[in-house]
């Protein structure tokens, strides 16, 4: 290693933690709201607690290489358990706290977990339920003792008791833990994160200390994060993003993690903490905006007027000012005024007053939504990555934000495109292996050491990566141009009236689509126009609704026509489905992703109609109701033709 | 179960209550044991709420006597009942709609406040320390009932089910040894009822609070009660453990009606 000696030593998370405890013992490392008051833990206190938990675990018989299951909301003691486990050379395995017992049983068996730290009674009950199926599980340690008074099982232990055991152990053998920490190396697996399992069974992704530390370092340098940042940790600990943003980056740069009081109080906590660094999936940003807009509609006319003025100004020049582009003095003045009157207070209400960097990822974000946050002065950016790459592949650099790209390759990451457009990545952040799945590991990393992301994309003229779809979903139209269904569907879904869309076109002459309308938004729309309807099926068949959706489709067509790669993907014909696609009927996954193959088989007759030139098609479908009963829905669906644009003509129109 | 049902702490003997010519209660006797969940059921107008009102002294029965923890009394004032550790909630929610959840629950601490009004008005001296202590207790209640997210919301803006929970919170804040709950689950959906049941059982289990409960939902009553009293037209027609009461022909007749 060419590193100076001091640097080389900080190559595992426990070493980083002990370093912070020495260098900045009194800086806040974590905050948690308890009984309505924010309690702060300094780095020294965190280190002390981590030591106690680690020694307690060791006393229970936790060995190097053992896996520690961790289940619960973002609680400080669960983060400490992650660190404690790493101190002992173990591998923490976080699980989604809202998963049902069965799903947890799978992970517990797959990872051969003997020890688990869980948050509360709810999780303990799940562990007891699946105990039979997981004979390896020896100890379950719970954080919150509420309601646990009657649990006499010796298999259970309170975290308080574990910590006092550990404290005593640490006192009697003070060198033990330091010895364990010094045994760890950067290439040891530091954490196992399970993939969501949309394709087959979940797989455990083994990441090393080095991978996460390098990714965290890269991210911190890229966005100039310091020990002064505050982050609100409210996304599941089992998710790679939380592990990178909350755990790894905080360990690397020494900033403060804030744990909300409960899932429902996140909005209030956000406002009280005022994070400087923030991550949220697009739907959170969308909900926030909707809340604001709804409340503005109830405001007095004068307030609405100044709000509209401020929004106009922000739209015109907000994003440019944020990007440091030249803006006229008059606009600058108006923006300053809007900021004083509306934008500043608005950001304050949202808890965004102090934000320096905010990220979104996980799903495509609507351009209007993205622009809104940037225009009011929030440095919202997009990133791209997956569990296998520590959520660290591409980041949008400050000042170079493009709405539909995910930015440039992050420091230390190499990105290239395969011939079929698949994105391949290489760098220190790649997974070591899938746990016990050498076949899957071999499949996903090619002989040159590139990880196959399974996403298809391309670089634009400025070197920004654009993601278009899952590589396996990308097909070709008979005309020869590429067909990316997700790309088209996402564009459709950005309209508030469209809830779900399924596009077809692979090996066909043109593109067609099924549309699901958003019952609430469309219902509202027709009600305001004085139209009565009796339910989803009826609403979906209203001529007014067909016209509304047709306008949306044509707008998309105009946009697609402007993009030389996508001009042939304009939607020629579409229909509005007579029922909502539903996970209970197997049409969507539990995470609400369309199961393309299933849908195209189930509705084959509709697809035929779309391509045969018919203007109407009868369909009868079995449905499952929530109470388990079976029923049938039938309807005559109208098939609409949408206007398409010639590639050139659209450019001038758009 | 860790809690053990203890001795009789409340004994109602020969209670009769009338309003002018209307006989609300006629010669009713029953008792409540320490730490138990005791339900009073009966059709509309059976006299259930009147019975609760007699217990905490809102109504004064014309005949009969009430013995609470060995002390025999006929006339009781509500504030004295409160001082003796009896708290209650109401059928038609009696919260301060314009005040926040915290402030509403804080009113439950009223009797425990010792400083005088001037200290409190100036928020000075002992009053400060006292307020902090009470606030802590209130926060524990909030934590117990899992209503952190609505802490600062005015009660009037909350849905009905949550208002009921806040009312329970206010009763809990007084750290009562006995709680009288007047239809805590009326007008709730199944999920809200389940939540409320869990809270009632938790209160009973964790704090050992004796609970006297009026409820219409038979399923709930039979599930959570230790013993049940059945009233009909102001008369007692049944008393005993849930199974016993369920099979009592008079009770079945009162609930389902009989052919005359």
UniProtKB/TrEMBL annotation, chain A:
The keyword Nucleotide-binding applies. The keyword GTP-binding does not apply. GO terms for molecular function: ATP binding; long-chain fatty acid-CoA ligase activity. Signal peptide: none annotated. Keywords: ATP-binding, Ligase, Nucleotide-binding. InterPro entries: AMP-binding_CS (IPR020845), AMP-dep_synth/lig_dom (IPR000873), ANL_N_sf (IPR042099). GO terms for cellular component: membrane. Residues 19-435 form the AMP-dependent synthetase/ligase domain. It holds the Pfam family AMP-binding_C_3. This is Long-chain fatty acid--CoA ligase. It comes from Denitromonas halophila. The lineage of its organism: Bacteria, Pseudomonadati, Pseudomonadota, Betaproteobacteria, Rhodocyclales.
From TrEMBL, chain B:
The keyword Magnesium does not apply. Pfam families: ABC_tran (PF00005), BCA_ABC_TP_C (PF12399). The keyword Cytoplasm does not apply. InterPro entries: AAA+_ATPase (IPR003593), ABC_AA/LPS_Transport (IPR051120), ABC_transporter-like_ATP-bd (IPR003439), BCA_ABC_TP_C (IPR032823), P-loop_NTPase (IPR027417). Residues 10-258 form the ABC transporter domain. Keywords: ATP-binding, Cell membrane, Membrane, Nucleotide-binding, Transport. GO terms for cellular component: plasma membrane. PANTHER family: ABC TRANSPORTER ATP-BINDING PROTEIN (PTHR45772:SF1), CONSERVED COMPONENT OF ABC TRANSPORTER FOR NATURAL AMINO ACIDS-RELATED (PTHR45772). This is ABC transporter ATP-binding protein.
